[in-house]
Amino acid sequence: MGHKHGHHQQADRRTETIEILEAIVLAIVAVATAWSGYQTARWDSRQAFLYGTSSKQRFLADQLATRGGQYQLYDATTFGSWLAATATGNTKAAALFERRFRIEFRPAFRAWLRTDPFHNPKAPPGPLVMPQYHNASLIASAVASKKASAAFEEGTKAREHGDNYLRNTVLLATVLFLTALAGRFKTHAVRASLLGVSAVILVLCLYYVVTFPRA
Known about the structure:
Layout: H1 2-87, H2 91-99, H3 106-113, H4 136-182, H5 188-211
């Protein structure tokens, strides 16, 4: 009788220990799940922001590229008209076209004239190929395009981080399921085995929580 009573007490203690461990696992899972869900939402929000920024910068880059192309066409056209007027000796028309040169174009034009283009066969074909030629709109377009690409890459990374936290949430849900399933068994060995599997997955999830970047 005493042996049976001692066996029951031992079994009760094992049951109580397993139940305490299950409660601890469930508590940790609840906190870890909340954190993973929070981080998933944060990274998703950051992804949307970065993709929006990328689209905005890409649109700006296209606008600036169009404007820069128009300026470049204007520079080429006015220079061509100046060149034609100069070649025919129409100094009045040449002076008129020269006054129409854009401010950005003039340094390149003056630098080109210094190469003695009308007598020097090795002179550059025109101011647009001179290193002094600058088109602020095209330069700004390149900068905006670079920013768009950088924001898109960051957005892709943010999406990957969010997906990692989402997968971690799924793993935590698995831990929750196994722990709840363990509580439905009366056999200590089965409950302990399921709880052990849950603990291993939980440790893995906690490792991810600690090592994953935070938004």
